[in-house]
Amino acid sequence: MRITASVRSARPATTAGPPSLRLGDWERLAYLREICELLWPSPGEPSPDSGVTAWSRHNGAAHAWRHREAQFEGSEFILIPGARRPRLLVPTAPRAAASAVRHYSQPQSATARAMRGALALGLASGFGGTLLGVRVRVNTSPGADSIETYLQSVIGHDIRVSIRLGPARANRKPVLHLLTPAGEPVGFAKIGFNPLTRDLVRAERASLSSLHGARLSGVIAPRVMHHGQWHDLDVLVVSALPVWHRRSPVTAARLCAAMDSVGRLGGLHRGPHPADAYLRNLRARLAGAAEGPERMALQLALETLAARVCDADLTYGAWHGDWTPWNMASTRHGLLVWDWERFAVGAPFGFDALHYWLQNEVVPGRRDPPAAAADCLAHAGQLLAPFGTPAANARLTAALYLADLATRYLVDRQSEAGAPLGAPGAWLIPALAAEVARQPASQNGSR
Fold first, then answer.
1. Of 110, 311, 346, 397, whose CB count within 10 A is highest?
2. What CATH class is the domain 252-444?
């Protein structure tokens, strides 16, 4: 198997050169190559390259080279929006490509929506791929086994795949949008390829299976279509949620009601037993993190919090685990919520509201993360009031949430993976340490 990238430029071939790419661009392109090598494994003898221009990095510099014209078998894609800031790999089938772009993200501004619509229209017409000019070919030998052939056998009919290229994170995994050649959505396939992502894929399968038949009010979750192993990869296929339904505003009341419905799955519990179970689980998770000053500081803060939890009467329930504005869509039929791989039971009631608020605040360019983490504690009373959390327990619940999230980042080694907010010692742990240093009397709401 061989991967090449073709860039069609209006400039003469003698003056064409590689684009000026940032470090993040190179990282995503390198990730794209890794994905292709996973999903289109070599059958032993790669087919020859076609006459295209490809890029690589050698000794830190970008180089371009040309290959001779030849026939190839395999799959061909369009890189959106191009080699600079690559985000999405779509099939060349016009309708499937347009559908993949329309359903790629939830742009917030009118300008972003208009740009996405124009791009989808251009792809549907068949001209968009030519205008963008960046094509990626995955060359395989005739009859070679690939993720496409596997998924077609699972789905039972011909499909096209689109691949999302997310930012660097420890839990980043290939996510394939499955479409018919006519652009009809079929589902999404998530691929677990290492211990962390395999565990997350299996966890999401278990979570969605447990949600099947649950009485959720105002929340629509995907259903599991398939889970299996292929070439030592975990493959989870889930249904496509109807994001094409007409949108409706996300009011605070509607969002809280939906989170309340999820939080009550399995029932709400109070008392020392659920508190002890939650703390044991959190300590066990933290013990799996690498030793270092961050883990030590978090352990010290957690022990102080544990003593306060024993004196408090917190309520425990379920939570989605990663409920954010970009993991949901609001329609007239309900809130479409996806990415259930972090779903858990036995957590302090209201965690989802805190997570939604904090993650929205630390979107790049919006807020200073340390200040946002501190404000999560300050606003806890207001954020948790819809869930019936007394003001006396709100800050403690928020402190446990910061400890839980910091533990997740440490255990996943997000910092080592290059995640922008992957080092909890830079923003989560300082806010938590400042909170636990407060006088115990502050638990009663005084400052």
1. 397
2. alpha beta
Instruction: For residue 65, give the 3-state DSSP assignment.
Output: strand
What tokens were used for 224? 């599991």
Give the count of beta carbons closer than 10 Å to the beta carbon of residue 197: 20
The first and second tokens of residue 435, run together, are 């909170």
Let me know: does 91 contact 83? Beta carbons within 8 Å: no
pLDDT tens, per residue, the chain with 447 residues:
555 554 443 333 334 444 456 667 788 888 988 999 899 987 533 333 333 333 333 333 333 323 333 444 678 888 887 777 788 899 988 888 888 888 776 656 666 666 667 777 777 767 655 556 578 888 877 778 899 999 999 999 999 999 998 889 999 999 999 999 999 999 999 999 999 999 999 999 999 999 998 989 999 999 999 999 999 999 999 999 998 888 898 999 999 999 999 999 999 999 999 999 999 999 999 999 999 999 999 999 999 999 999 899 999 999 999 999 999 999 988 999 999 999 999 999 999 999 999 999 999 889 999 999 999 999 999 999 999 999 999 999 999 999 999 999 999 999 999 999 999 999 999 999 999 998 664 444 443
Q: What is the pTM of this model?
A: 0.87
- Contacts of residue 118, defined as CB under 8 A and 6 or more positions apart, other chains included, come to none
CB atoms within 10 A of CB 2: 20
- Write the single-letter amino acid at 192: G
Q: Do 360 and 325 meet the contact criterion of CB atoms below 8 Å apart? A: yes
Question: What residues pair up with 21 in beta bridges, in sequence order?
Answer: none
Q: Which residues in 17-46 are b (16+ Cβ under 10 Å) and which e?
A: ebeebeeebbbbbebbeebbebbbbeeeeb
Q: Which residues contact 441 (CB under 8 A, 6 or more apart)?
A: none
H or E element at residue 384: helix 380-384
- Measuring CA to CA, which residue among 48, 88, 41, 43 is closest to residue 69? 48
Question: In the chain, where are the structural domains located?
Answer: 2-239, 252-444
Assigned CATH topology for domain 2-239: Phosphorylase Kinase; domain 1 (3.30.200)
User: Is 168 strand, coil or helix?
Assistant: coil
